[in-house]
Amino acid sequence: MWGSTLTLAKPPPPPVNCDKTGCDLYNSYGVWGDRNQCRAPTVTFPKTEEDIRLVVAEANRKKLKVKVVTGFSHTIPKLACPTSSSENTFFLSTSMYNTNIEVDIGNMTVTVDSGVGLRDLIDKVEEVGLSLVASPYWEGVSVGGLISTGAHGSSWWRKGGSVHDHVVGISLVVPAGESDGYAKILKLDSRNPLFNAARVSLGLLGVITKVTISLEPGFKRSITNVFNNDSHFEDEFMDLAQKHEFADITWYPSKYIAVYRYDDRVPLSVSGDGINDFIGFQANTLLVSASVRATEKALETARNVKGRCTMAASVLAYKKLIGSGLKNNLIFTGYPVVGRQGKMQTSGSCLHSPAADILSTCAWDPRINGLFFYETTAIFPASKFTNFILDVKKLRDLKPENFCGVDIYNGFMVRFVKASTAYLSHSEDSVVVDFNYYRADEPSTPRLNQDVWEEVEQMAFFKYGAKPHWAKNRNLAFLGVQKKYTSFTKFLAVRKQLDPQSMFSSDSSDEIFLGKETGNSDGCALEGQCICSQDRHCNPEKWYFCRSGLVYNDARVCRYSPATRLDEYREFNVNTK
Question: Residues in domain FAD-binding PCMH-type (predicted)?
Answer without folding.
Answer: 36-218
